[in-house]
Structure prediction request, 723 residues.
Amino acid sequence: MGFDNLIGGTIWDEYSQKVQDLMNNPRNMGEITEEEAEAMGAKLIVADFGAESCGDAVRLYWAVDPKTDVILDSKFKSFGCGTAIASSDTMAELCKGKTVDEAVKITNIDVEKAMRDDPDTPAVPPQKMHCSVMAYDVIKKAAAQYKGVDMDSFEEDVIVCECARVSLSTLREVIRLNDLTTIEQITDYTKAGAFCKSCIKPGGHEEREIYLVDLLEEYEKEKMAKAADASASGSDLPFKEMTIVQKIKAVDKVIDDNIRQMLIMDGGDMEVLDIKENGEHIDIYIRYLGACSGCAASSTGTLFAIENVLKEKLDPNIRVLPI
Amino acid sequence: MRVYLDNNATTMVDPDVMREMEPFFVEKYGNPNSLHAFASQTHPALKVAMEKIYAVINAPKSGWVLMRTCTTESNNWVLKSIYLEEILTGKKNHIVVSEVEHPSVLATAKYIESMGCKVSYLPVNSEGIVEAERLREVITDKTALVSVMWANNETGAIFPVEEMAQIAAEYGAKFHTDAVQAVGKIPIDVQDFEPDYLTFSAHKFHGPKGVGALYIKKGSELTPLLHGGSQMGGLRSGTLNVPGIVGMGKAMEIAADALDFEMVEVKELRDMLEDALLEIPDTFVVTPRNKRTANTLLIAFRGVEGEAMLWDLNRAGIAASTGSACASEDLEANTVMEAIGAAEDLAHTAIRFSLSRFTTEEEIEYTIDATKKAVERLRSISSSYAYAPKGHESGLEARH
Prediction:
């Protein structure tokens, strides 16, 4: 980080040669008119995305064969910087010859990869990645128009980071599995937030519905709630130091987890009446319910089972006294 | 051809300035605050340089002109020291800046605001100018500082600092003006309207980078930002940048002599460029010519995104800007265009050409030709001028 951030580099140095060439001579720049589409026997689709006031905008023209859904020709017009023009051009190129359903599957990452000079070097610097997102969005818009559906119907999951296409469910899972607590960690694990940075927190280049800081906060709250639960049950404390309420809860939990099921299967149950310290002993007073009361084993085998598991799980000085 | 029209970002060092600086690197390199001949041999030139700097802004000898690294440092010092002395101590609770200040003022004001100080941001009018009346609406007797630039870096708009300094004085507030875009472009006389603080940098008028100055009126001294040795009367510690100060002195002297040339000849070239570019349809200039510095032109070409325009100009060998160079790496719209409330679709289309006394007529002719070609090419690509079939409802305002 340190050294690389000292001198403001020019972002243009990070454009691939392909991006530069496309900026200088876009191949698919232009329009398709209704007459031209008609001459091809095709349906003309014109889709817009973005706005000049936001710094980038694109209009996509498709001539689609209504019998086969194949995109016969694809052209664009774009208001934007060099990478926006190059991305729009590449997107238009990738659409050609595909069916509308195939075109919808083109992502911004496909567009960016197609502009690389070599497969391992990104075609544009991170902060320009969002330009390719616009190219991807306009395809969905065109497809939605052609099919007469809403463009959101093409998105299966909520995408939090559009540049790296990382979904909400992926992020939630990765954060929890790896116990991530910082934005840097999320970026390292998923690449979300590595590019235009709009998804990190409000106030970036683009407004988002959900930000990475929200997801961290959500996980942090979840962890705090769990910790609060744990301290309410006193599970971190030695049994002797618990309050009476915590002790009864702890005993109930051990009974629930180990014993109660068996008692209920036999048509009985038990309840904890009181817990008292008696010299070095901790006496737990219980009452048998249902079939248990009066059962012979309730003062022998069952009682030992209850006492042993409580001794093991909570405190070796426990005695269980049925009343 | 290579044409440099980004002189509001920085300038070429005048070869005469460089010659003046040269002996102070290898030959006369002593620390002026030491006690030996190597030190004292720097003194005459430093004294001459300081005298020139005082003379050009007509600073009284009782006042301070502290040599510093840059205007960013000076601006930070003024705002932060006022915060430490007047706000943190509870004497005052408020400062005023304009919303089109350079980031070195604006970001510092935001920082101070985050520490609990009230900050008012003065708006600009549709000509990109901060009106003095706006200051009257917000200033109180609890206002510690008013900081408004003299000339705007992006539009060149000249602000009514004399009037604002007077209003500040009425309320017992200190007045600071960032004059980095004014020195060398318009006459400066600190005894004319008595600002408490005035900041500027050598590299904006053909001096070296890394040397700037902060003028402080007698009686308005600030707590040092850098504690250390006793250089500059203890107000600004750190070994004196001897070649830098010598260079700044020379650069100021030349700039003062060239002021008429700047305001007549440079203006002629700028007007020539402006007239020719305004012949392009759908082209806009915000601040009227007579209300801005003579070398600056901020012009918007509808439908042509700023960075794309810089790309085409750069291919033609021309250096221009979309705004403040400090902001060129981020992707936001031009702040002045946004503050003016220019038609929203123009916010990303502003290009700044800033000339200098070294700009030639031939360079301007070439730039006019190259700019027209770039606008034509980029508009042919632009969605703003794109065909739409009958009945197509434009969706190009959909986002945000």
